[in-house]
Amino acid sequence: MFLHVREARYLRDYVIWLRFNDGAEGEIDLEGELEGEVFGPLRDKELFRRFRVDPELQTIVWENGADFAPEFLYENMRVLA
């Protein structure tokens, strides 16, 4: 099964709530991933908050071209009971 992000919501700091196409949902803290040329600018919380779920890529993306693979997000989120 291919994983796709269906919904995403900003929670706080660098934490995003996600729901996937298999029904799993949880939170992921991306603070530790925000390094380098593409992800570094996302340390600006105003920029970080402006993500969206791209209907074509089916994951979260930012206006500067940054995105995370849905598989990475799925494997690293804290699942909510």
List key phrases describing it:
single chain, 81 residues, alpha+beta, NE0471 N-terminal domain-like, four-stranded antiparallel beta sheet, two-stranded antiparallel ribbon, 6 strands, 19% helix, globular
Question: Quick gist of this model?
Answer:
Helix content is 19%, strand content 31%.
What does this entry look like structurally?
The protein is built from 3 helices and 6 strands. It is an alpha+beta fold. The chain has one domain (5-79): NE0471-like N-terminal domain (NE0471 N-terminal domain-like), CATH 3.30.2020. Strands 1-2-3-6 form a 4-stranded antiparallel β-sheet, covered by helices on one side. A two-stranded antiparallel sheet has the order 4-5. Strand 1 (5-12) and strand 2 (15-20) form a beta hairpin. The radius of gyration is 12 Å and the shape is globular. The model has no long low-confidence stretch (mean pLDDT 96).
